[in-house]
Each structure stands twice: as C-alpha cells, then as structure tokens.
Amino acid sequence: MPQISQILETYASQFFWLLIVFGLIYFTVGRVMLPKVEATMDARNRKIADDLAAAEHARSEANNLGDSGAANLTAARNEAQAKSSAAKAKAAKDADARLAKADAEVSIKVAAAEAALSKATAKALAGIEAVAADAAADIVAKVSGAKVTPAQAATAVKAVMLHG
Prior knowledge:
Elements: H1 2-143, H2 150-163
Helix pairs in contact: 1-2
C-alpha cells in the first residue's frame, strides 16, 4: 500500500523533532524546574511543621498556665475562706464578750431593782402593819369599848400576818 509507505517518509522528520522537543522539555522540567518546586514545597512543609510545633508548645504552655492558674485560684479561695472563718470566729467572740458584758450589766440592774423592790415591799408592809395596828385598835375600841395600846395592837397584827 502506497499510503502507508508515504507516512514513514512524510512524518519521519516530524517524529524526530517531536522526540527532540519532548526530550528537551523533559530535561528542562526534570532538571531545572522540578528541583525549584521541590525546594519550595520542602520549605513550605518545614514552615508548616515549625508552626505546628510552635502551636503545640504554646498549647502546652497555656495548659501549664491554666493548671497553675487553677492552683493559684484554689489557693486564693482557700486563703479567703480561712480569713472569712477567722473573721467570723472573731466576730462571734466579740459578740459573746459584748453579750456577757450586757448580761452582767442587766444582772446588776435586776439585782438593784429587786433590792429596791424588796425594800419598797418591806416599807409598804411596815406601813400596812402600822395602819392595820391603828385600825385594829380603833375597831377593838369601838366594838368592845376596851382600850388597846398601840404596842399590843402591833403585836397582834404581826402575829396574824405571820400565821395567817
């Protein structure tokens, strides 16, 4: 077939130049451009790895700070509770002291009032005895007509008041 034999003659030089161009492209890309791309990718991968390592380091430091912050917060809370308890105890002690002082003052006033009341009661009873003795002497004089001395009337009233 004559068409097939013409193909080799017509296209043989084109195949030769095509192989030379592809060879040049292959060596240009493989020897010149590919190392530059690989170097850029390696640099980018190193940068990403360094950034990840720095982020991990920062995260671990943040966790450590968080732990120490929590420990500091707990210590401060415990210290505040201790101070609060101490203040409450002191306030309770002061209140007890003031209450004891007030109780002592009230007890003194109650004792003075009871003494005054006893004195007033004794005075009133003495007055009542005197009035009762006078009344008894007057009643005996009016009812029986007998004359009773104030000393006898007072003795009789005291006897009745003690026994009856």
